[in-house]
């Protein structure tokens, strides 16, 4: 069963690669249409030159910075909003309004305020990640067992301790889900931000900007495809990391109910 | 139930209210609360804009409102909104037309699933935005570029949710249909396809946020008009009030899309598990 699956999966990938290679061979060489071997060579060259690593590190740093800001804002706010019903009602309209705005739409405003560097990029990432974390944290608090909160209150715990010792551990799985969703959006947004900033000037780096350069100045499609693969691999890796962590915290929910 | 009571108690005591307000005035206050926050936000914005006193950096809300009014009045905003929404709709239609049948196929045939799934899992992590430069080389700055990116973004949640929904058809239903003498094609038409619609709608709603993100990003760089194009255009000539007005319109568009899809979902698949708890 597993073998058939593996064979079929490999077959379809090989068929696609062979079809690409054959198709590329029939395109006139005047057009910038690379074949599989071109892309592989380009990948080797880029990996050897070190520019790609540097740009990757720049992008990842921005994502990490923006994501950390988002967690620092969304986690305490989400816990409090979920716990204090009136606060949730109070902020609901604003959250709904800002949540509906696509994160990349606010990029020009952040560039205007913070310039075209790391701060604007990290702000867009933070904006993208903050709402999934916030909304999932609130939902997590709502799903905490009322009995546990009541018991803790009866035993004389203050609201702050109930939040940190009862509610927070109970809603960890949902918080992880929110972080995973937020990270996915954040990774998409950073590439978009760097692409768009790259479209304006030639500073500040990142994979998105490398992509823009190979599109706009070099028309180097092989390199472009390598960058796309790197973006995909990193996106996959980051998501896998969150899924592993999420699974690790999953049992906590069972033991607490 | 008991949670409501404890929360209400907490609120009353933390607000320091000596006399507890009656239920009706409570609900009035609660329904007014979000608007209080919105008004407070506008007030803070107004004060900040007043103290910065630089309309290029932060125009006051009234200025943004008047810019919005002007663009509504001369029809420019409507044209751009129609262009963007048209691309969004076109992209979604393509995603459904391609993604839904593939999803059904993946659910019905193990072989098809084995062939398709690895390819999907390899391509899917590449975000739609990462396709923009390549699409620019192939398609150029055009109508087709945002449509392609949106279709790409929307197709995966639609396809995978359709497959999951079809696989989730209960064995009891299938057995009942078989016992009642339905042919395989009749079972697919009357049992599996309604389940597929549930998956399509769930996938469409999940994909909508990402589609808006991709739409705006694609229009920044790769479209001759539209909401994203307008934001980027007015940012370029530092007409900040117009830029913020278009950002707000984008947000409104995102909100309306979500509401419309939710309504459609309730219409088409009122039994959908995705509607529980809303």
TrEMBL record, chain A:
Domain ABC transmembrane type-1: 60-242
Cellular localization per UniProt: Cell membrane
Coiled-coil zones: none
Keywords of the record: Cell membrane, Membrane, Transmembrane, Transmembrane helix, Transport
Membrane-spanning segments: 63-85, 97-114, 120-139, 185-212, 224-245
Membrane topology (UniProt): Multi-pass membrane protein
GO biological process terms held by the UniProt record: transmembrane transport
Superkingdom of origin: Bacteria
Keyword Transport assigned: yes
Principal localisation: membrane
Family: Belongs to the binding-protein-dependent transport system permease family.
Record-given protein name: ABC transporter permease
One Gene Ontology CC term in the entry: plasma membrane
Pfam families found in the cross-reference section: BPD_transp_1
Gene3D superfamilies assigned to the protein according to its UniProt record, in alphabetical order: MetI-like
From TrEMBL, chain B:
Record-linked InterPro entries: MetI-like (IPR000515), MetI-like_sf (IPR035906)
Transmembrane segments: 32-53, 88-110, 122-141, 147-170, 191-218, 230-257
Family under the similarity heading: Belongs to the binding-protein-dependent transport system permease family.
Keyword tags: Cell membrane, Membrane, Transmembrane, Transmembrane helix, Transport
CC per GO annotation: plasma membrane
The protein's name: ABC transporter permease
CDD domains: TM_PBP2
Region ranges (Disordered): 1-21
UniProt domain ABC transmembrane type-1: residue ranges: 81-265
Membrane topology label: Multi-pass membrane protein
Origin superkingdom: Bacteria
Keyword Transmembrane helix part of the UniProt annotation: yes
Primary localization class, coarse: membrane
GO BP: any one term: transmembrane transport
Keyword field contains Membrane: yes
């Amino acid at each position: 069963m597993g073998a058939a699956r593996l064979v079929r999966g490999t077959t379809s990938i090989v068929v696609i690669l062979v079809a690409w290679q054959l198709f590329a061979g029939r395109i006139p060489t005047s057009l910038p249409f690379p074949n599989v071997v071109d892309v592989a060579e380009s990948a080797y060259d880029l990996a050897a030159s070190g520019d790609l690593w540097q740009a990757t590190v720049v992008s990842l740093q921005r994502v990490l910075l923006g994501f950390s800001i988002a967690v620092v804002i969304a986690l305490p706010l989400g816990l409090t909003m979920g716990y204090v019903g009136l606060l949730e009602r109070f902020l609901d309209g604003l959250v709904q309004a800002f949540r509906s705005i696509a994160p990349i739409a606010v990029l020009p405003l952040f560039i205007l305020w913070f310039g075209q560097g790391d701060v604007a990029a990290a702000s867009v990432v933070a904006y993208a990640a903050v709402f999934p974390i916030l909304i999932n944290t609130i939902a997590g608090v709502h799903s905490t067992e009322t009995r546990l909160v009541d018991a803790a209150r009866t035993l004389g715990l203050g609201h702050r301790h109930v939040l940190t010792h009862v509610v927070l551990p109970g809603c960890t799985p949902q918080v992880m889900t929110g972080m995973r969703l937020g990270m996915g959006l954040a990774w998409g947004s950073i590439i978009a931000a760097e692409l768009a900033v790259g479209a304006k000037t030639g500073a500040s780096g990142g994979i998105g900007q490398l992509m823009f350069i190979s599109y706009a100045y070099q028309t180097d499609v092989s390199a472009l495809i390598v960058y796309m693969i790197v973006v995909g691999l990193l996106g996959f890796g980051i998501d896998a990391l969150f899924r592993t962590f999420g699974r690790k915290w999953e049992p906590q929910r069972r033991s607490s109910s | 139930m008991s949670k409501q009571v404890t929360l209400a108690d907490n609120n009353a005591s933390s607000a320091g209210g000596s006399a507890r307000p009656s239920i009706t005035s409570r609900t009035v206050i609660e329904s007014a609360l979000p608007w209080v926050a919105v008004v407070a936000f506008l007030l803070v914005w107004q004060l900040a804009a007043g103290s910065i006193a630089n309309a290029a950096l932060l125009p006051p809300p009234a200025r943004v409102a008047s810019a919005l009014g002007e663009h509504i009045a001369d029809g420019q905003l409507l044209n751009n909104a129609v262009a963007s929404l048209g691309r969004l709709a076109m992209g979604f239609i393509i995603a459904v037309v391609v993604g839904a049948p593939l999803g059904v196929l993946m659910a019905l045939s193990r072989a098809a699933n084995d062939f398709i799934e690895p390819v999907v899992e390899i391509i899917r992590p590449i975000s739609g935005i990462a396709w923009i430069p390549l699409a620019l080389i192939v398609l150029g700055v055009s109508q087709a570029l945002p449509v392609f990116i949106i279709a790409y973004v929307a197709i995966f949640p639609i396809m995978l949710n359709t497959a999951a929904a079809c696989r989730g058809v209960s064995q009891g239903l299938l057995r009942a249909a078989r016992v009642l003498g339905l042919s395989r094609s009749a079972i697919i038409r009357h049992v599996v396809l309604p389940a597929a619609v549930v998956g399509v709608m769930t996938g469409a709603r999940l994909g909508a946020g990402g589609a808006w993100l991709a739409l705006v990003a694609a229009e920044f760089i790769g479209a001759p008009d539209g909401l994203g194009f307008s934001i980027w255009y007015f940012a370029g000539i530092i007409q900040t009030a117009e830029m913020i007005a278009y950002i707000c319109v984008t947000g409104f568009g995102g909100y309306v899309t979500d509401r419309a899809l939710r309504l459609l979902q309730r219409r088409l698949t009122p039994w959908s598990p995705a509607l529980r708890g809303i």
